[in-house]
Amino acid sequence: MRELEIFGRQFVAIRAEDGWAVYYPGAEGKRGPRFEIPIPHDVVSAEELRRYLADLCHEWASPRHPDVRWRS
Fold first, then answer.
1. Domains of the chain: total
2. What is the pLDDT along the chain (72 residues), one digit of tens a residue?
3. Confidence (pTM)
4. Which of 20, 40, 68, 72 is most exposed, with minimal Cβ within 10 Å?
């Protein structure tokens, strides 16, 4: 489980055998509800996921939060 910031919004990403899943952060460091976004199976690495989410969610970008980045 890795923390991910998508244009200033906090998420948690988990890599499983069948691909990535992205969740809203929950209480006490646990994961919350799933972020309903389709992630293709060919997105394998953490860097590919970061770039994919940056492309998909680019409308969220602002001068204060211009990028998608891993927090851990």
1. 1
2. 899 999 999 999 999 888 999 999 988 777 888 999 889 999 999 999 999 999 999 999 999 999 999 996
3. 0.89
4. 72
